[in-house]
Amino acid sequence: MSLSVSEVRARLIDALNAMPASAEELRELDAALGDGDLGVTVKAGSHAAADAIAKLPPDAALGDVLIATGKAFSTANPSTFGALVGGGLLAAAKTVTGSHAAGRAEALAMGRAVAARIAERGKSQLGDKTVLDALVPSLDTLEAFELGADERTLLDAMIDTAERQVLATAALQSKKGRAAWVQERSIGHADPGATAWLRFLQAWRG
Asked: I want to staple 39 with a disulfide (CB 3.0 to 4.6 A). Which of 22, 26, 89, 153 is the partner?
């Protein structure tokens, strides 16, 4: 499994352009737990990020793609989620400086960097009912596969894990952000951030 930067750019643009289709679902989930702005954040951020990637020069490295994506996503509609994702992508860019291709190892390094930055900046951990509850287990699934597995197999397995984890978040009580304010009333609702990660994986698979 290895993609050139041009392939990553094309796939990423396609996935980002597909994300606004989930905006209403994410708005409804977020409205049940917080201020309901996640749908707007994802829609505006995805459009802005896709545009930023398309404007990069042909010789842009993988790190440049991540930096452009992170900056555009975080500034399109200022929000906590946007800032966390943007910061995570900037951290991920440092793991692939100068790279012009991405395989399983690079995907893992980028994903782990995103998760670590989100955990650090959001002061959150697994079980707090955040995007981490789907992101980290799906990365664990990717890491557990033997070398040589094809991309479709890896993605299917990651998506299966993320789907299970999103469902599992419904049983948790939110501990971070505005969602924590509703306390036990947050139980019964899937986490919107975790759902957004699942929808991105599905959009990336196509």
From this structure: 26
The answer to whether the CB of 82 falls within 8 A of the CB of 74 is: yes
Which has the higher per-residue pLDDT, 124 or 32?
A: 124
Q: How far is CA 193 from CA 102, 129, 147, in A?
A: 25, 9, 30
End-to-end CA distance of the chain: 16
Integer Cα distance of 122 and 194 in angstroms? 14
Say what percent of the chain tops pLDDT 70: 92
Per-residue tokens: 38: 């996640």
- Bigger pLDDT: 185 vs 144: 144
Tokens representing 98 are 């100068």
Residue 55 DSSP code: T
Q: Rounded to the nearest 10 degrees, what angle do helices 80-93 and 62-76 cross at?
A: 170
Sign of CA dihedral 147, 149, 152, 158: negative
The answer to whether residues 193 and 148 touch, using CB atoms and an 8 Å cutoff, is no
Nearest partner of 85 among 72, 94, 95, judged by Cα: 72
> For the segment 76-104, what is each residue's pLDDT rounded down to a tens digit?
988 999 999 999 999 999 999 999 999 99
> Averaged over 57-71, what is the pLDDT?
97
**E strand or H helix that includes residue 102:** strand 101-103
